[in-house]
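Sharing a chain and its predicted structure for anyone who wants a worked example. Both blocks are below, sequence first, tokens second.
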Amino acid sequence: MIALLILTCLAYATYDVSTVGWKDNGLPLFNSKDWPNCIGFAVYSFEGIGVIIPIQDITADKDQYYTVVVLTCMLITAVYLFFAEYCLFAWYGDFTPEQPLITEYLPNNWYTILVKFLFAIQLVISYTLVIYPANMIVEGYAFKGWPKSRKRQMCKNFSRGIIVALTIIAALCIYNKLESFLSITGSLTCTPIAFTLPAWFHYKICAKTTMQKAIDLTVLIFSLVLLVYCTFFAIINW
């Protein structure tokens, strides 16, 4: 479903370029006004990194898991860079802040409506995977020590229902400020997961040489600076 949307956007972008040319007039080489938001976006784009360990726990072939993760991250990074740059140069002239989603730049016909619908279904399906760590953490605290029973099962279902309801409410509140919300989310919550905590854990457990400790501390300090500065910038520009 994701691949279908990517190919559809690339096809329509290519068609627009072939008919009216590139729409990159006025595109700055560097966005000096909102560049800190890019850091939050970039970190958030890999928010699924938090499910690597839970998925590893249920993986049959754990010996090949590291290779699969590395190749997957490399492929995703390449797709992100190419797709974003290509569509940016193709549709920059049509961009408006009121339409931050790239699907808004597709023409309305039965095919694009179907593609958008399938992409929405994909988000619903992937939501269950992304929300898994949050459910495990909440249930680990809320129902710690509870024996397996009908009561425990119903309470777990109730807590998961509350989490879904809260995410729906949040989506309704911030859908028109999606770019700012993602920037804050990436800077405030994803930066510690992607940079701060791994560097700290490696420093405390694995680092043996002075070089290793220096690298860990550099990453740790740099991530904290990004967390504070980018989060504050995104909130100010909300």
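Comments welcome. Residues 2-236 form one domain.
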